[in-house]
Amino acid sequence: MSEKLIFLSHITEEKELAKIIKDAIEDEFSGFVEVFVSSDGNTIKAGQNFLNVIENGLVNCIAAIYLISPESVQRSWISFELGAVWVRNAISRQNGGPEIPAIPFCHSDMTFRDLPQPICNLNGIEANRSHSLEFAFKSIQTAVGGKGRLRTDFDVLAEKVNIFERDYTVFKSIGEILGLIGVDSQRRAQLVQLVNSSAENEVIIKTDTRQDSADIIFKLVDTKLSHFAKYKVTSSGLGMGLQGASPFCEFELRMDRKILSDYLAR
């Protein structure tokens, strides 16, 4: 039997998650399924026309998976690739053909209620939950024409997704914050020492920045790190710098010691 094609749509920044899902699907349906991932270095060969290869994947796939995050949902390629499979599925059903499932895999703080039209009309899953992953794999099994019990350990797969999400959202945001407060190599060493010497669950970082930088930090804490960090403004006003007076802000950052320790240990 020739391998059937699953199209996996993603943005470049999320290629590590695409590989996790690709490997899991190909391990589960070994010999029956090939997963099309444009960023894996193998699917699109050197010298090939990128768009033509993408088109062939969209035309020939028997199912499609879309990695949907707050970042990817804003990219035009996701909508383009979703629309192609959506139309193919509608034509197939009108002609009495098989269903071509298009499955959104929500991850990295994307929730069902935040999905825009028309993606919200599809039966998506939360990619960090084992039972949701199993549900998606059963849909793929049906599309492939397979039967029987699935072999994948979905708890292990969900944990791999969770680790990716931590690196992609939490660690990325921590890195942005430390950069904004000027944590260079010397200050990083001091921060490591502070974290290692603390017996508390939180590490308190007292700092000051320009107000515009502080606003970015506060937004990151509120939107990306609300479970791991909080802030408290201690003072604000005008400060003198190289370019004259500008608004400044003094504040305390309280960060989860374990998460910060894990970030610094990378």
Automatic annotation (TrEMBL):
Q: Where is the TIR domain?
A: 6-90
Entry keyword set: Receptor
| Stored Pfam families | TIR_2
Q: Name one GO biological process term.
A: signal transduction
Matching InterPro entries, A to Z?
Answer: TIR_dom, Toll_tir_struct_dom_sf
| Protein name per the record | Toll/interleukin-1 receptor domain-containing protein
Organism of derivation: Salmonella enterica subsp. enterica serovar Javiana
Taxonomic path? Bacteria, Pseudomonadati, Pseudomonadota, Gammaproteobacteria, Enterobacterales
